[in-house]
Design a protein that fits this description.
- This protein is mainly alpha-helical.
- It has one domain.
- Helices cover 75% and strands 6% of the residues.
- Helix 2 crosses helix 3.
- It is flat.
Length: 95
C-alpha cells in the first residue's frame, strides 16, 4: 500500500519536472524572441505551466535571494526546486 502511494507521488513529481522544463523552455523563448507571444492553445498551455510552477518558485524566492554576479542577478529558485524534487523522489524510491 505504502509503495503504491510512493509510486504515484513519484510519478506526479516526474510530471512536475516535465512541467518545470516546459516553463524553462517558455522563459528562454521569451528571452531570445522578445516580440513572441503565445496564442491559441499554446497560450492555454503556457498559462497552465506558469500557474502550476509559480507558487513553489515564489515561495523559494522569498527565502533564498538572487545571487548578484556583477550586473547579472542569478535566480537559484529553479535549481533549488529541482534538487528538492530529486531528493524527494530518492526518498520515495527507498520506501
Amino acid at each position: 500500500m505504502v509503495s503504491s502511494i510512493a509510486a504515484i507521488i513519484s510519478s506526479l513529481l516526474n510530471l512536475y519536472v516535465l512541467i518545470l522544463i516546459a516553463r524553462l523552455v517558455l522563459e528562454y523563448v521569451a528571452i531570445f524572441a522578445r516580440d513572441w507571444r503565445p496564442k491559441g492553445p499554446l497560450l492555454l498551455l503556457s498559462e497552465t505551466v506558469f500557474t502550476l510552477t509559480d507558487p513553489p518558485l515564489k515561495a523559494i524566492r522569498k527565502v533564498v535571494p538572487s545571487v548578484r554576479l556583477g550586473s547579472v542577478s542569478l535566480d537559484l529558485s529553479f535549481i533549488i526546486l529541482l534538487i528538492a524534487i530529486s531528493i524527494t523522489r530518492g526518498l520515495l524510491a527507498s520506501v
